[in-house]
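Batch job 17 of 40 flagged for manual review because the log was empty.
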Amino acid sequence: MLNGAVALVLLLPVSPEHMSIHLAVNGLVARTWTTLLAISLRRTA
């Protein structure tokens, strides 16, 4: 479920006026998701 939510956030359309904010949010979401996924995989290994 979390993977789908992250995909939706990263694929949202961007308006030119808010491009820098959108890029910052995308970076934060992608980095957080990657970190949480890595922690989850490490615990199961």
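Reviewer: the log was empty due to a logging misconfiguration, but the result itself is present. The first helix runs from residue 2 to 10. Unflagging and moving on to job 18.
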